[in-house]
Amino acid sequence: MKDGLTIVYTGKGKGKTTAALGIALRAVGYEKRICMIQFIKGSWHYGEMDSSKRLEPEFEMVAVGKGFVGIIDDKSSKEEHKEIANEAIKISNEKIQSGKYDIVILDEINYAVNLGLIPVNDVLNLIKSKPQEVDLVLTGNYAKDEVINLADLVTEMREIKHPFQKGIKAKKGIDF
Prior knowledge:
Blueprint: E1 6-10, H1 16-28, E2 34-38, H2 47-51, E3 59-63, H3 78-97, E4 103-107, H4 109-114, H5 120-129, E5 135-139, H6 145-150, E6 153-156
Parallel strand pairs: 1-5, 1-6, 2-3, 2-4, 4-5
Helix pairs in contact: 3-5
């Protein structure tokens, strides 16, 4: 019988990474070992970079990306983002296969696929090759149907209302 689940948090609404971090927080309470690999994010400072250290040694966060792709202050080429995303896939595979972790979170991996930084087949291979006992959590908007079909649990966050619509900027502790 299958023990480890594949969980996907996707959709245009807020809360995908937050839901994954909620799993991590709960799991640390049971002394589970968790690794979170962040695709896309990486060059900016955000709250989970500091708070994750408080969950050590059970929780490890690896920020691999070069920051959000294609936004105003993005100075990296698409090729640079692809190279880093491919490195994140290698790191993800190593962590998943290492036997050191009960849960591996691949943050923003769905978005990396949607942006063309990594092929969906790389994600499918990670899911298919994970050890039975490992729970795998994938976050990010635009989850591909193939990923959704392999997953055991899929939650779509749907935006109904957002403070940005009123001109309210991102808020520390809420948005980053």
